[in-house]
Write the C-alpha cells for this entry.
Amino acid sequence: MTGPEHTETVTGASVPTASIVLAGSVEAIGAGAYVVDEQGCIIAANARAERLLGRSADDLIGQDAHDLLHRGPQGQPLPRTQCAMRQAFHAGRTAQADEDYFARSDGTLLRISWLITPYDVGGRHAGTLVVFHTPDHPQVTDPQPEPGAQPLSELHRLALLAETTAQLTSTLDVDEALRRLVALVLPRLADWLVVDLITERDEVWRTVVVHADGDTLTHREDLQGPMPPVPEESPMPLSRALRGVTSNLAGPQTYQGPPDSGIAVEQRRLFDATGMHSAAIAPIRSTRSVLGALTLGRDENPAAFTPVDLPLIEDIARRAGLALDNALLYQRQRKVAETMQNHLLPQMPGVPGLQMTVRYLPAPDASQVGGDWYDAFPLADASTALAIGDVVGHDLEAAAGMAQVRNMLRAYAWSQHEPPSRIVERLDEAIQHITDVTMATTIFARIEPAEEGHWQLSWTNAGHPPPLLISRDGLARYLTDGHGILLGTQTGTRRPDATAQLPPGSTLVLYTDGLIEAPRSTLDEGLDRLRQHAAALAHRPLASFTDQLLRRVRPAGNDDDVAVLALRVPEA
C-alpha cells in the first residue's frame, strides 16, 4: 500500500502577459527606454521615451524600432547593414554608442547616446532593452569615484536595474530568484555575494555565500547556515540592515573589536574566511516587512565600495525583496493548497491478494486545488470498491465538490448492494439537488477474486477516460465498455455495466485526463502515448511502474492536476 505523493512544476508567461509587467519595469528607468521582441518590434516603452520621441506608447508599440526611429546624421533612413544597434541586437549582445540619431514624430532629429542589452520578457521569449538619453535631456551624472574605482556608467546602471527587475519578477521560486540575483551581480559589481534571510519564525539563515573568480562561481556552503538572533540595539552594519534601518559599508576592521552580539562573531568569521577587504550591506525589504540583508564584497577587486555605490545596491536589494516576497507568498499558498488536497484524498486500504498504489500531482498554479480524486474501500460483500473522478473546475469550490461526490459515492456503495451502474445513477440524481457540482466524470468499479488467480472487475464509466489493462507480457488495451455520459447532465438515461477478467500479473490503471491531455495534441495521441509507455513498463514493480508512467506520459505543458490509481494482480 502506497500513499499519495506530490510534485510541482512552474509555467512561463506569454509575451502579451509579460508586456504588461514590462511597462512597469521600464518605467522605473531614469532615461528613455523601450523593449523590443525577437523581431525587433517595440513591446513596451516608458514615459520618458514617449516625451523624448514625441510619440505615445500606442504609436510605438508594435512598430519595428529600427524603421520607425533610427536615422543617419542628415535624417536619412539608416540601412540595416550599417546599423550597429541592429547588428548587436541580432548577435544577442550588449553594445552602446555615444552618438547616434532617432527621429521624432515631428520629423526633427534627436541626438542620442544608447545602450542595448538582452532582456528577459518571460517564458521562452527573448527580448532586448534599449536605453537612451540625449545631451538636451541629460541624466543625473555619477559623482566622481574614489581613486581606483571603476563604477558602471549611468546607462549601464539603468540597464542593470531594468534587467534585475525583469529577471527577478519572472520567477516564483525562491531558489531560482536567488540564483538569478547571483548571476546578475557577480562578477559585475562584486567578488562575493551573501544573502541572509529572516525565516517565518524570525530566525536568520545565511542562505547564500558565493564567490566569483572570473566567470566561475563557487558556492561556499561551509559558510552558510543558521545565524544568531538580530540584536535590537546593535549599531553594526549587518544588524542594522537586518532590522531594516539602513545600508552601510563595512570591512574587516569593522568587526575586529569586542563583539556586541553573536552576529558580529559570524561576520568576523565571514571576513576572515573570504578575505573581503570591503563590503556593502543593504536591507532586503518587501512592502510588508524586512526579509533579510544583501552583502556584496570585494577581495580581488582593489577598489573599495564607497557611499556612491550604495544607492545602486539598495535598488537591487529592493527589487530582490519584492521578488522574494512574491515567491514566498506563492510557496505558502501552494503549501496550503497541497495540505488541503492531501487531507481530502484518502489513504488506500490493504487488499489481500492485490497490490495497489496511488499518485496525485497538483496543478502547477499554487492557487489551484483541483477536483481530481481517487478512492478505494472495502464493501460489505467482501469485494473492494475502486473509484476515480474529476469535478469540473480548479478552485476551492471544485475541491469541496469533489469531497461531496466522493463521500456520497462511498455511502451509496456501502449501503446499496447494487451494480456499479445503479450506484452511479443514484449519485447523479443526488448531486443535482444537494451539491453545487455542475459536471463531473467518474469510474466506479468493484473488484473481487475469481477462479485460478484471476480477479473480476465490474464497472461503469460516467464520461471518464477509459481504464487501461496491461498483461504481464506487455499487451495493453483500453476497457472501453460500460461507457456513459458524464454526471450532471440530468438526462435520466440508464447507465451500462461492464465486466472484465484481470489475469495473474496484469496491471490496471485508472487515471484522470491531466495525464493524457496536452495543448495542440489530440486525445487519441495522449491515449496512444499512455498505452505505449505502460506496455514498456509492465515488468517494473508497481510503485516504479506508476512513478515512471507519470514522468514519461504527463505532458510538459500540462496545467491540470493528475490522479492515478494502479493495481496489480500477483503472479499465479
Summary: The chain is about 30% helix and 25% strand.
